[in-house]
Amino acid sequence: MLPSEPKIFHGRDSELADILKLFRQGTPRITVLGAGGMGKTSLARIVVHHEEITTKYHANRFFVTCDTASSKPELAGLIGAHLGMKRGKDLSRAVLQHFSSSPPSLLILDNLETVWEPAKSREDIEEFLSLLTDLPSLALMITMRGAERPAKVQWTRPFLPPIQPLTQDAARRMFLDIADDKHSLQEVDQVLALTDNMPLSISLLAHLVDVEGCPEILSRWETEKTSLISEGYDRRSNLELSISLSLSSPRLASIPQSQDLLALLSMLPDGLSDVELKQTKFPIKDILGCKAALLRTALAYTDDHKRLKVLVPIREYMGRLFPPTNQMIQPLLGHFHELLKSFMAAFGMRSGIDSIDRITSNYTNIQNILQNSLHREYQNVADVIYCTCDFNRFSLRIGHGATTLLQDITTLLPSLEDHRLKAYLIAELVQSRDNHPIFHTESLIVEALNQFKYFDDPDLEGMFSVQYLCNRLKKMFASCLPHLFRSLLCMEVSQYFHSLTAWPDCPLLGTGK
């Protein structure tokens, strides 16, 4: 009744070595934790078929899938079925007696979170696990989605950390084992970028690529997102089902606003630091409790810089089905705008330099928030435009060039009724014209100058006046300089000045200035 050994398995050598080391030390009690779709079951299947494990436990290896159990009696019944027992009301005692009188045995409980997570059954399950681990000859290994171990058990140390996405090299090898090696490395990496190297996502996309090819799958992802790989019937063949099981976790349901935080994080590839979680006035009562719930269920993780992040497949799923509300976005937009304004106010000073790191660590976050706000019915579009202009100014000053968001807000120009906002936006467009060529620059400047009839801002008006003068001079010199250079090359200085005064159409002389 053992499951088959995985035929395609890459990138878990370190985890496998750690598990085998624990088995060599005695009779271990091991937890394999991680997000849904990360390959916990595959790792457990590799372990149960490993030569060292086969030699040590022979026929006394049991692999029980716990998906269908919802209580301790049902879990004991599943284990009893693998032991060849007849059905009964509660086989817990019989299972314990069997293992207590058996030679050294290994029991693997796969997907134990199904029966452990509900509060009504958790205490009974933990008590049953405790009794199992009291048996000196029984090695116990469980797999659970999340990052939290059941209580009442003396789990063997050192604990295994929750398993992480595959390395890029292992992800490529897994992909190419499924989809053949007829695809370019660049195409493969483009597809892998959609998976964040999550094994389940890699497997599902690789099988599609094997049939349709990389270009077609990349094109379909633009519109279908995670639904593209969600046609299977269970959590191992359907990514969205796997994610939805994590979302329905009682641990998450116990803190309802956890999903609101997850929805917001789905828009933030750069994640959020603890400082940002605390400083930003989100409409969430227990923001750190929500963070803890997401970490316990492995729907989020903290990177090497201690920033709370979400894997790409989960981000795409949440963004498509459960996008964040304006009430969640607005405080973060305000926080980012305050950072940008403080940078501009202190530009060139030490405090301005310090704020660069804070903004740069959220660079893609700010882009996504602004992009999203421009394409949804946002309550205050003026805030978005002002923030976009300031973000563009920051981007130019740190050498990243003008942001493409300018192209989006340019379309809003004709409909703006706020005169100050209109002038502010035109100012940013004109100053960024080298990065984004603007037709009719002079007419835009004239339009901006007309706005100052309705409000008073000498600094901004002065900037436009200088821009207007520079634009006029540029046009003027563009028409006359070719003639001047030809004269300088062909004549002596005296002859040049003689020809210049004899040139009635010279713009410099014709204006009388």
Topology of this structure?
Layout (H helix, E strand, L loop, with lengths): L12 H12 L4 E6 L5 H10 L1 H7 L3 E5 L6 H11 L9 H9 L4 E6 L2 H4 L2 H15 L4 E8 L22 H12 L5 H8 L6 H14 L1 H11 L14 H9 L2 H4 L4 H8 L8 H6 L7 H10 L4 E2 L5 E2 L2 H10 L4 H20 L4 H11 L2 H12 L6 H17 L7 H6 L8 H13 L9 H11 L6 H33 L2 H9 L5 H4 L3
Parallel strand pairs: 1-4, 2-3, 3-4
Antiparallel strand pairs: 5-6
Helix pairs in contact: 8-9, 8-10, 9-11, 10-11, 14-16, 18-19, 18-20, 18-21, 20-21, 21-23, 23-24, 23-25, 24-25, 25-26
Pfam families: nSTAND1 (PF20703)
GO molecular function: hydrolase activity
Keywords: Hydrolase
Please tell me about this protein's structure.
The protein has 513 residues and is mainly alpha-helical. Among the domains are: 13-145, Rossmann fold (3-Layer(aba) Sandwich); 168-229; 472-510. It has 27 helices and 6 strands. It has helices spanning 13-24, 40-49, 51-57, 72-82, 92-100, 113-116, 119-133, 168-179, 185-192, 199-212, 214-224, 239-247, 250-253, 258-265, 274-279, 287-296, 312-321, 326-345, 350-360, 363-374, 381-397, 405-410, 419-431, 441-451, 458-490, 493-501, 507-510, and strands at residues 29-34, 61-65, 105-110, 138-145, 301-302, 308-309. The strands form 2 sheets. A 4-stranded parallel β-sheet has the order 1-4-3-2, sandwiched between helices. β5 (301-302) and β6 (308-309) form a beta hairpin. The longest helix has 33 residues, at 458-490. The protein is elongated, with a radius of gyration of 32 Å.
How many individual β-strands? 6
Strand count, sense and barrel status of the largest sheet are:
4 strands, parallel
Question: Which class of the domain at 13-145 in CATH terms?
Answer: Alpha Beta
Number of helices: 27
Query: Overall mean pLDDT score?
Result: 87
Q: Might you state the CATH topology name of the domain at 13-145?
A: Rossmann fold
Instruction: Indicate the structural class.
Output: mainly alpha
Strand order of the largest sheet: 1-4-3-2
How widely separated are the two ends?
98 Å
Strand content range: 5-15%
Q: Give the CATH H-level superfamily of the domain at 13-145.
A: P-loop containing nucleotide triphosphate hydrolases
- Provide the CATH architecture of the domain at 13-145: 3-Layer(aba) Sandwich
- What is the 3D form? elongated
Gyration radius over CA? 32 Å
Q: Low-confidence runs (pLDDT<50, min 5 residues)?
A: 506-513
Helix content: 55-70%
